[in-house]
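Hypothesis: this fold can be encoded by more than one sequence.
Test: take the structure tokens below, design a sequence, compare later.
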């Protein structure tokens, strides 16, 4: 059976990044918030969970 621990690490790291993002947006100004929104949107598009699960 193949090692799928990378999936667990991907999910945990995305949860940590989401928490950091939420804390950062509380203290960010408008320009930083716009940059963060674009960066997180791109990250979510690249790390689409259904596509990851399809590879399993």
């Amino acid at each position: 059976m193949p090692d799928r621990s990378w999936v667990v690490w991907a999910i945990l790291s995305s949860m940590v990044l989401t928490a950091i993002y939420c804390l950062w947006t509380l203290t960010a100004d408008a320009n930083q918030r716009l940059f963060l929104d674009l960066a997180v949107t791109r990250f979510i598009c690249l790390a689409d969970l259904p596509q990851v699960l399809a590879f399993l």
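Helices lie at 5-27, 30-46, 49-55. Residues 11 and 49 are 9 Å apart (CA to CA).
Hypothesis status: open.
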